[in-house]
Amino acid sequence: MIVFSSTQGVPIEQNITALLVAAPAVLAVFTAGCGGSSHSGSITGQIVEYTIPTANSGPAGLVTGPDNNIWFLESNNNTNKIAKITTNGSFKEYQLPTTTAFPESIVSAPDGNLWYVDESNDLGKVTTSGSVILYTATNAGELTVGPDHNLWVANFRPITPAVDPLVNVFSTAGALLHSYDSGTTNQLESITPGPDGNLWMDTFSGGDVIKMTTGGTPTPTTLGVDPGHTASDH
């Protein structure tokens, strides 16, 4: 049982729905209702698992698409597909052009398409009917839609050793608009828009969190431990 508490007398949500990804080839949907007073409530619910048609597909990334279906990537070696599942559990899979690409990160963009990056230097645009167009995004690690409605791609590693990883900005036409220095020599890992109108990133190692303006100005902050790790990991 999971117990939610509400402060300041604000009623908690009466229905909670979460979509989970579980390797190697299962999607799980958890639906729950919660009751009780406005100060506390307990959740009971049901988990429904859906088996992905491709065995050992390695689901990675998850986003609600412009068609209101759930889209995800299949990243295991020699799988390399993009797939969607309706909220009723019906799957449709599409093969990606690069068969050993290891697609990793996916977003729904304001142009009405899905976009992803992979480990084969691809930035892919996918229509809701499954058509794929590839653009080049060297060393791409993760992407997000920025406050400027462009695609922001954090490079996992620098193109040249001893050079800071770049943050590349692409239009939804696939054009590279800007390449910004990240302000850190550490490998970039995650990127997301913040409520302050900036982009925020963390690093795979080195313990940095970086704020970047839409004009490309980075402000790195070094933490006591690496993001995503605890002191006991060191």
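Next protein, fold it too.
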Amino acid sequence: MDGGYIEGLNAYSGILASKNASMVGNNNARKYSVIIGVDGGSNSGAYNAFVIGGQNNRFTTAFAGDRSGILGGLNNTITGGGYGGIIMSGNGNVSGGGNYNVIIGGNNHNRSVFGSGIIQAGGSNNDITTTNNIYNVGMFAGTNNLFSQNASQAVILGGDNNKMLGGSSFGGNLGVNQAILGGNHNEISGSASTNGINNAVILGGEYNVIPSGSANTAILASSGSFITSPHQRSAIIGGSALTTTKDDEVVVPNLTISGSAVGEVGVITPTSSTGSMDCSLGNMFTMTLDNGTDVRLEASNIQAGQTINLKLTNNATSAGTISFGSGFEFEGGTPFTATATTSAVDILTFVSFDGTTLQATGLKNFS
């Protein structure tokens, strides 16, 4: 031993085959601690803790690493009120203020502070830090990745400069069940006043953002794309600089389908002589006219770029007629008229270029 040092009531503590190692303090702060075979190690203020091998590793401040340990590595530190934490190998890593946290390998100030149930494995310059608690999160490999503020059940796997950022208070939580897998400069973020995002994922790509309030969303292999808050259950796949426009939306730049694309056929049932066509529910509809009376077709939730087909069947008992609401336009300004035969089938097609009006054409009397 060269420079081994024990001071205070260091019950059940020991230094074995070490150089420049020390245990200091009093009030039983060093109970059940041990330093084994280190160079420049300092075991200070640690309960039931150990440093084994390595160089310049340390526990620091009172009750720093209760039931914690450092195995090998260089310049690693456990500091500030942690329970059950461990650093294994690695260089320049810091764990503090957390419970049951693990840092394995890695380099240059991978940090895990003020959280519980945290694991970091490998990587460089990664940071889990907050003024409030972070629970049950993981960061694996990667470089310059960051967790900050109120994250739970979240993971960053690989990648570079990816971030999960919560709010500045417990009123602004990041949310739970988040993941960033690979990619570069991607971000899932909460806000200071709004609870954040539950069940969100960014997979690959770069400079993508899922902001506060956008739950159950995903960005996959895109660049510079953004889930617009507070859209829910939406996804962006591929492309560049894409944004969502509503809930329950999938945004893609180009779509090639090998096989068939099938849309659900909605049924319009006239009520009080009005047929209501909600354009947000689909692109194909059927409607049967009432017995010997007129049905007025009204459209709602029209979307620019939408094409809708309507199969119109006349009444089987007595032929009815159809009229149209103000949002419909026809060639020459003359509205379509249904085939005046019982059970006759006509097909109408509606196209919208502005999200307000529907330009219509019709074909008659299919049999």
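About the second fold: DSSP finds no helices and 36 strands in the chain.
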